[in-house]
Structure prediction request, 288 residues.
Amino acid sequence: MGSPSGPPFDPDDPDRERRERDTEPIPRVGPDDGPGPRPGPGAPDDSLFSDDVGYGGYPGEDRSGRAWVRDPQAGYQPPQISEDELAGLRADAAGGTPRRVLPLEDEPSSLVARYLFPTERYRGEWKRHWIHLAVPLTVGIAATFVLGYLSGFLAGQDVGALTTIAVLLWFAVMGWVAWKVADWWYDRFILTNKRVMVVNGIVTRKVAMMPLARVTDMKYEQSPSGRALNYGTFVLESAGQDQALREIKNLPNPNELYLRVVEEMYEPQAVEARLGKEADEAKADDGA
Prediction:
């Protein structure tokens, strides 16, 4: 009789136990088998894994003996937003609970829509606070009072040319005021799910934007008059050296607007859940 293949048996061989352990068959652990090795507490849910076979008892298997292989058909599972988490974002039916953030607009204006691409989700647009017009309006009111005083003073004088010049100057000042008001009307701060933008200018249009993913720091500042009249200045910091959009002055409701931008940056699922809830409520109201 021939001898078995392999090296002869040596009781003092230090690698003998390791070779025997490596060649020992590992039993399969199935769903109906007895107690055996089970995955640790960090094992993912069974619903996210396929039925690819693996060695039972390995830490890479679930309780049914299936290998931990992620099912590509499962896709990304978004986090579930509970009603308690959404309660602080909505007002109740009586309007007694104040909102933490401003209500979301449905559609962009025609001025803004041309700058949005189809897959971008619009979140809102805001004109600057009326304090932005404080200087032009003050100049227009002062010019009107000065013209009235000069008209009364020059009425008894034989200086018709001076009166004409004063009226022309008043028209020029009021034209400048009207230009400033129109420029304020076309000046918009825009928020989407991907970026923030500022669009301004009447003849020369300027569009500045910054992706939300590049915003490394954001703050807003309020002077004493800003706290009294509810406006502030936003400062955005980015990782880049040259920034097309850094400081936006005289924005209304800065605290609510700050929460809106931060929510869009860090909790976009909450925004989507709130939008879906509001749409369902609107449909229910229309059906009623």
